[in-house]
Amino acid sequence: MAYIGQRMTRVEDERLVTGQGQYVSDITPSGTLHLAVVRSLHAHARITHLDLSSAQCLDGVIGVYGPDDVLPIMKPFPPGMVDARLQARMPTPLATGRVHYVGEPVAVVVALSRYIAEDAVRLVEVNYEPLPAVTDPVAGEYADPIHDGADSNLAAEIAYRVGAGADALKDADLVVQTSLRLGRVVGHPMEPRGIVAIYDSEQQNLSVYAGTQGVHGFRKSLADMLGLSESRIRVVAPDTGGGFGLKTRIYPEDVLAAYLAMRLNRPVKWQGDRYEEFISTNQERDQWHRAKIGVKRDGRIVAVVDEYYQDQGAYTPSGIIVADTTAVSIMGPYRVPNFEAVGKVVVTNKVPVGPYRGAGRPQGTFVMERLMDHAADALGMDRVQIRRINLLTPDQLPYQNGISSRGALMTLPYGEYQKTMEQVVDAIQYEQYRDTVRCEGDWRLGIGIANYLEMSGGVGFEGAKMRLLSDGRVQIATGASGQGQGHRTAIGQVAADRLGLPFEQIVVVEGDTAAIERGIGTFGSRTMIMAGNATTQAAKGFRQRLLAFAADLFEASPEDLMWQHGTISVSGVPARALSLAQIAEEALTRQQELEYEAYFDASGPAFGMGTHGVEVAVNTKTWEVKIRQYRICHDGGVIVNPLLVEGQTIGGTVQGLGTALFEALIIDPDSGQPQNASFLDYLLPGAGEMPDFMITEVEYPDPTNPEGFKGVAEGGVMPPMAAVCAAIEDALKEWHVRADVLPITPNDIFLQVTRGGAHETRSI
Q1: Element (H, E) at 487
Q2: Nearest-CA neighbor of 546 among 598, 581, 589?
Q3: Is the pTM above the cut of 0.70?
Q4: 67-120 residue pLDDT tens
Q5: CATH top-level class for 27-131+203-242+247-273?
Q6: For 284-458+604-754, CATH number?
Q7: CATH code for the domain defined by 461-601
């Protein structure tokens, strides 16, 4: 049977849901020591005194370490992504001189148990001289630098220009401007970060178990920090409960645990808790935009201009990828003849920003879709109609929008953008809402539509290494590291298809540097594009390798052999046949490894697209927002497994709805202290807040890779914010509510209604 395109349930699930998974927290080798972290209580302060003596005296404590005690690793982390536009601000494993955010590591304790280590942390005495905290990126650009030796807090300036840029606004009949704000969100994978480091002093090898999205990148960064050869480090990502981009980078705790494991010659384990996720793991969104759109009276876009700030937090662990991807995502699936985006990346006294599901694409989508809605309103035009006028049409594709990204000019492939939108317009019954006010008791109903373009893959390479196992099964190793996406199922489907084998005969191994020498990892919706195509390439070479080996056994030419359902036979002589198990047995006898390794390099990013439509109900007494129905049409290229795609799309959409309605880490503007760093106060969407999602998949194969795959993991998170905001405005249009600041909460709506319409909470 053909496996690509089948709705197969995940092979990973039975083991995980029956409690047989193995996460970092489950791995505790004999003799393990436990590490706990002394973290800064201040957003910005000088460290005037550090006394470790009381903690060192506690029974069960093996050691307490400040910066002076771990000097060999006290150097800045290697930059995440080198860019000439960036003046990188990278941390050291422990803070020296001053701290830059609440939660920054100051010292560490190693003890016989985690309980003892946590008790000892409270005995470490740290004296601080508080300094003014920079919490506003706009004012912070010109505030005193928070880093010693820096000229300013401006880490980078990003600029893109297409056509006449901002100058083209003078040719528009109408220019609409809006200020937009996306709050700071915390990623919160189910499994907090953690690491177990084991050092073999005799072999001088280091083994690491870590919940990372890229074992090879993790190994390289660890080698750089420890001064070891990569060949002496093995990194394994066991079962990992979510990543969302937050686990793409190496963190201070990883280096400290590995270094102390080597120094003490005992396994060292650090397992973060939920509170530490709030104050020490990279965060995202947190942008301020002042955007303009110029249009003709018939609705055609003349120009789009955006000035924005990225609140980067204290460091730049992943470079400017979030802010840069925001800019290149703004134009989306529309014809925009003139475009200009200028973004400023400003460091502040907050937890550093790194990619979180979408990595700038949701921000860019939010800007464009909000501009489309406001332009339509200003023209007195229907919000869907202005999109019909400006969406790219099949005769205009492929379309180059004038921006280079990821080393290639952005070229949008064929796809029927308008047809995709119309499917959602019909499914959500949009036409029934036009020019009406719909009420159900105290509830007002509204509807919103948002389009998006999902840029995926297109960076670097990924590999697949096939090996014949002794029982005749085929093992495929890849550098991709899954965190719940279902890689073993999807990659297994591709391999089974391309090898002509039963799915059950495929074994997928991921997230282990010992299994395949090179790899990059799982992020940016890249795995099926990169690892999927590498699997196809490896399958072709692997078959040829097995045929050549079988030809030697048969004393025949490889051209005279047939491969059918995993059995190799001589053409015309069906009795002369060997199964893969028999071939494996012969290979074992001859002491030969039957394997083949292939790598796929992308020629540029792939582009999917789609539309989300949502109906909301807003209570006019409490201003509560409920989502009544949600419709999605998504282009995922050639779809390997529709069930997995639907799961990824829904998961991303729920996270986008969280950003829209619930989530924001509140930071005190004066002290820089987080005010809601627990699930008692930081709201995540649950099943009770979510509707049933209806999803339609369309398939337009991408021309940048032989299999036609596109990414799907981040498409769901991109349009929900704009769609929900549009629907809320539609429901409350008699009050002239504007939903341009996220999250849009009942209190925000109440304040707008009582003040007589929209108000800007912050202008840039």
Answers
A1: helix 487-499
A2: 581
A3: yes
A4: 999 999 999 999 988 899 999 999 999 999 999 999 999 999 999 999 999 999
A5: alpha beta
A6: 3.30.365.10
A7: 3.30.365.10
